[in-house]
Queue: 2 jobs
Job 1
Amino acid sequence: MLKIILFIRSSIFYLGFFSSLIVFTFFCLTVGLFLSLPKRYQYFLYWNKFIVAWLTATCGIKVEITGQENIPNYPMVILSNHQSPWETIFLYQFFSPVSAILKKELLNIPLFGWSLALLKPIAIDRKRKLTARQAILQEGKKRLEQNISILIFPEGTRVKVDENKKYQSGGAFLAIEAGATILPVSHNAGYFWPSGKFLKYSGALKVNIGKPIETAGRSARELTEEIEIWIKQNQDSA
């Protein structure tokens, strides 16, 4: 009986998810083309806010955030664990304006990818690691200079809650080279919106925002290990 209820609630969520996506992407690809980048962030991300609220209304997933006082009032490099599609939606609007590091294939998705491209993400080819690292460094510096924060998932891909994956140091390297601050973020979204699964589970999805980390005089590997330890210690009890 419980699974039937979860299936119904999840079905209603996806009905709203995809129908609203069509409406918002149509707006982005028509009106959005004539808006400046700051205005695009302002209007495009209404969809992200809607989805977070819709998820609460249909599936009973509430968001609890701690550490908001730690958020600097200047652009930064945000490093977060990656368990679910949820954080790509929530963190993108919560820390807006923010440019995400993502695989370039996403920009080829009809409507959604085309709209996403208008927000100037940093798209990389994961198969070409050296080129990808150079793109992150070059484009990342440019975005930070434009007062846009950078969102990076150092695991490089979504990881199940019961699995571990070594963190990559690209985000820390960018922060060091750009003289930027790192903001660590942990969450437990994988328990409520498991990656690759249809069913959504109700409960308190917790987000923990850590204290900003200065990068001067630090090595990328040292910083990455520190952030990995902090996130893994906090992601289940965020």
Job 2
Amino acid sequence: MIKNLLIALLILAGFQLLGSCSGCSESKKSDKNALTLPDSLITDAPLKLSEEIMNEVIGNISSPVEMANLFKTSGVDFTQRILNNPDNVSRYETSFKRALNLGVFSADLGYINTFDKNNIVVSYLLAVKTLADGIRVGQFFDFNALRRMASSSTNLDSLMEMSVTSFNRMDSYLREQNRSNVSTLIVTGAWIEGLYIASSVVRESGNKDLSIRIAEQKDIINILEIILSNYAAEPNFADLVADIRELKEAYAPIRITRELGEPQRIEKDGVLIFIQDEISTVHYSEETLNNIMDIIEKIRTKIVA
């Protein structure tokens, strides 16, 4: 598995996101802003591509523990100012903006939980609840239970497990409802916000491990660009695709080489299993990395505006 970045932040605390929505049914009449697929796309590539590719994107993300360690060992203290402000939620009046920023706030929650900042968790949970209600993603979480769990770092493992399970249920529901574009927006928002947080830490600390994680995203952006391009016929998506393509171009100079390492032996249920390890090396310049971080910041600013 390629150990990549930052939907781990989304998984870490995000997808508390879906707390206490009432009414899971999709109705164009009841929500004029609801994201729906044009007829030309419903039977075309998006639904065929989405499940396989999205699983690859999510599966190639660094573990929450790994990312938490990277942030904590960077030497940079927690700072709320780099996060989206919960007060901004009222500005997001379209389902497109709500879905993107649902991902953004999910990543923010992951960063907050990494540093055990329980005093501000509830305001961010309320933000994601409001956005989730606004795009009718369904009642996949018990908001009150999640709020209690999020207020205690001792419940982090259980919170992560519940979040991942509930995200998978939500994602399946969105696909069944021909709303895989909504799922794509949530993941994109979380991915961009995670990269933005990592970039902010790198700019302050110069942390090498986080720099490598950002550079490794060349693999993910290629996949994400394919997914989003399938919805480019929709005006809002067209603008987002253009931004992602600009970021993809910035990643172009990066090279990632891989070689096989020594096989690892593990025992599972009394059976000896050999796992072939893969060693990745990321080649990039500081100029390229700075250009990437500049474009990430530009895209993120547009998303949260």
